[in-house]
């Protein structure tokens, strides 16, 4: 079977689905092709911090009804070290910018609903997805459904297929520069049926390493512990997890996370990665396909959204006037935002994690950095500005 569309989108994560919605609103045809099942994509537990720009974008494209009801707006975060919690009032420091807690899988759920309402194509469980003719005027995507071969011809292909996708590896190696740092630790994350005991997130540095207190709803707490990158989850009984979280998060004022039934456990590795440029011929990369940040800065989802907002604007220009100027600037502009987020995510990660190669000097230096941070309005403003994120620009 052969078919045609204007923009072929590989991947139905937040990037691919948001791009499809933005293009739909401009009257541009797209087909979204995903290799996993709809259930897998919606149930995958990922990040949960939305920048103001992401919230605004969700609203702009008409998918923010549930977000407005269930999203939790946070004006500040806490940094904990040396037995005390210190609040950073981000809204006050940035002229009102805040973050909203809403699971990435909820974002994906809402975007899939919106896509289905438009009646535009979204296909799950495809096999052997591959991209071809990237330097031609008519690139194509091949894939199999129930064993049958299909080819979709496009004007443009958007590679929104995440870090392990096929789009980036389809670009000749000689045409890409890769920048990477793999960290010698990971995060053990849990979802627990427990009312959040703090209204806002707590990022903690303890002698045993990093811990993070977060949440998903007024009934569900999300918690993370620094661990080995290849940590075996089966070595972590529920009791051991709660004991370690208590040790790393509890502060001298008696605060500690509420405990409850653990609903889900998982380990994620930590990596900083950028592929440059984010374009090869008629293939444009967006989101995790082009860059990965360690989760400490909470930037992954937001960077993906900023990319596709920019890409959709450039494609709208192309179809309106035939002008490719904005498309030609896409990679350079998207990379500028990416590197700002890389810098911030690396800084948060190195300030808050302990590494086996650290010596006592390094730990004292980290504490000195945190002391400075929570006592300097300038330093707190810098953190707040990066954490809440700059407005998206097209
Ligand atoms: N063919 C089709 N789809 C694919 C293929 C393939 N060969 N390979 C991967 N995919 C799909 C994945 O199954 C996934 O649904 O592409 C999608 C990519 O989605 P994400 O990994 O969520 O990436 P992105 O949309 O860029 O969103 C970035 O994800 O990793 C988090 O923290 C990150 O929050 C950020 C967000
Ligand atoms: C989350 O709630 O999953 C979360 C919050 C903050 C982070 C990373 C993850 O920095």
Describe the overall structure.
With 394 residues, the protein is of the alpha/beta class. The protein contains eleven helices and 21 strands. A hairpin with a 7-residue loop joins β10 and β11. α1 packs parallel to α8, α8 packs antiparallel against α9 and α10 crosses α11. The protein is globular. P-hydroxybenzoic acid binds next to loops. The site of adenosine-5-diphosphoribose (APR) has 28 residues, from α1 and α8.
Largest sheet features: 8 strands, mixed
How many separate helices? 11
Helix content: 25-40%
Oligomer: single chain
Shape: globular
Mean pLDDT over the residues: 97
Q: What is the percentage of strand-forming residues?
A: 25-35%
Give short descriptive properties of this protein.
globular, six-stranded mixed beta sheet, alpha/beta, 394 residues, eight-stranded mixed beta sheet
Question: In brief, what are we looking at here?
Answer:
By secondary structure, the protein is α/β, with parallel strands linked by helices. The protein has helices at residues 14-25, 38-43, 52-60, 65-70, 90-93, 104-118, 238-249, 300-321, 325-352, 360-375, 377-388, and strands spanning 2-4, 7-10, 30-33, 49-51, 72-74, 76-81, 84-89, 99-101, 122-123, 127-132, 140-145, 148-153, 156-159, 177-193, 202-206, 209-217, 220-227, 261-276, 279-280, 283-285, 291-292. The strands form four sheets. Strands 7-6-15-16-17-14-18-21 form an eight-stranded mixed sheet.
